[in-house]
Write a structure and sequence with these properties.
Blueprint: E1 29-30, H1 32-61, H2 70-95, E2 97-98, E3 114-118, E4 124-130, E5 141-143, H3 147-152, E6 160-163, E7 170-178
Parallel strand pairs: 1-2, 4-5
Antiparallel strand pairs: 3-4, 3-7, 6-7
Helix pairs in contact: 1-2
């Protein structure tokens, strides 16, 4: 076979994934809990996952021919993915602004607040306003950039707001606002 069609390097640059931007669209704010979660993910990736994958790659490399060694190729790819995520997390942790809950009791909805609203049909829903890194609809955590959060920022108990939804606008009333003091 002609050398022009053979690959002599095992760097596998063609499957390199693009870097994740350190600043996803939206806010740079994060709750203390969200910051700790990102730190914990970084620590686990660096101390546990990366170490384990490195050992697997070393064991696969010791088996001989790396060009057709699936374990070696997969391990190197996984290692690049982990390194990419580590770089992203380091950049992100440097870029975010940790927003602590207010010291005094506040009845207004601001970043980090939990709130309960009632829609026109009488359904009650509770959410928490968080940063873009913390969004988790199953845990009722919504982005500060979401239409619900934008419509309710600064509102107090008893205030009404018009929320734009895909199926049309709806009016909601704020029933309850609270802040949880994070545990360290």
């Amino acid at each position: 076979m002609n050398k022009a069609f053979t690959k002599e390097s095992d760097d596998e640059e063609e499957d390199e994934l693009p870097e994740e931007p350190a600043r996803p669209k939206g806010t740079q704010h994060i709750t203390p809990e969200g910051f700790r979660a990102l730190e914990a993910e970084l620590k686990k990736l660096w101390t546990v996952e990366r170490r384990r994958i490195t050992e697997e790659v070393a064991a696969a490399a010791a088996q001989g021919d790396r060009s057709e060694n699936a374990e070696y190729i997969y391990g190197k790819r996984k290692l690049r993915e982990i390194d990419r995520r580590i770089r992203f997390l380091r950049k992100r942790l440097d870029a975010v602004n940790v927003v602590h809950p207010p010291n005094e009791e506040s009845s207004k909805i601001f970043f980090g607040a939990w709130f309960t609203i009632e829609d026109e049909d009488g359904r009650e829903m509770s959410y928490r306003i968080v940063g873009t890194d913390e969004i988790d609809l199953a845990a009722r955590k919504i982005s500060v950039a979401s239409p619900v959060a934008q419509a309710l920022l600064g509102k107090c108990v008893g205030d009404s707001a018009l929320i734009q939804r895909p199926k049309g606008p709806t009016e909601v009333t704020v029933l309850k606002v609270w802040y949880e003091t994070p545990t360290t």
